[in-house]
Specification:
Layout lengths: L1 E2 L9 H10 L4 H13 L4 H8 L5 H11 L17 H10 L5 E4 L5 H7 L7 E3 H4 L6 H14 L9 E4 L2 H10 L3 E5 L2 H7 L10 E3 L2 H11 L1
Parallel strand pairs: 1-2, 1-4, 2-3, 4-5, 5-6
């Protein structure tokens, strides 16, 4: 079992709220605009640029870091962990499943996840690897990471869990993995209603539901 991070394990509501506050945009307007752009086929970056013309994530993140080096900024912590993560992980570990985390995240996410002590067998971070979803190299590295805790494991024996069809379900399937689409977060609700969701082996509303499905098939 390999898990994405944002809106799979981590509730990004507070992170996006801080972005809205940074640009003095009311939360309702910020979230509504982002959601509308994604629903119409745009990307998260498209949504930011509609609200903040000329927005550049790397440049803005650097400015924010310089202005508030000790603040939370776009990072996450224990308060952002979805409440179903720990009990669902416990149920899956008890059933003998190996759990790994691998997602598109900045370098700082690795220590933040490790500090949560989630009982996982490995953590893979895109900015550390230098490969990002949906690149095939990301999923090759994911298989290598899983094989460190489960020697000999193949892509076909991995279930990749994420909230997006484009970044998670489709590229993981192309890499030979089975896939689960989680119906939560800005992308999850929208993507679960698209034809691409049928490519997933399972669409789940939360990690409890996913754990029941996975344990029953283990």
């Amino acid at each position: 079992m390999v898990f994405d991070v944002g809106e799979t394990l981590i509730d990004e509501t507070r992170i996006f709220a801080r972005w809205a506050d940074r640009f003095a945009i009311p939360h309702m307007a910020f979230f509504g605009t982002i959601g509308g752009v994604i629903a119409s086929g745009g990307t998260l970056t498209d949504g930011f640029r509609l609200l903040v013309p000329g927005f550049d994530l790397a440049a803005e993140s650097a400015r924010w870091r310089a202005e508030d080096p000790d603040g939370e900024r776009e990072h996450f912590g224990e308060l952002d962990l979805y409440p179903d993560v720990r009990p669902a992980f416990k149920a899956m570990r008890t059933a003998g499943l190996s759990l790994v985390i691998a997602g598109n995240q900045p370098v700082e996410a690795g220590p933040a996840l490790a500090a949560m002590d989630l009982g996982v067998d490995g953590i893979g971070i895109s900015d550390v690897w230098g490969a990002h979803k949906p690149q095939p190299e990301f999923f090759d590295l994911t298989v290598e990471l899983a094989a460190r805790s489960t020697p000999g494991v193949t892509a076909e024996e991995i279930l990749y869990v994420g909230d997006r069809v484009d970044n998670d379900v489709l590229p993981a399937r192309r890499a030979g993995m089975r896939t689960a689409l989680l119906r939560r977060g800005i992308y999850g609700y929208r993507h679960s209603a698209t034809p691409g969701a049928r490519e997933a082996d399972v669409v789940a509303d939360d990690l409890h539901q996913l754990a029941d499905w996975a344990v029953a098939r283990h």
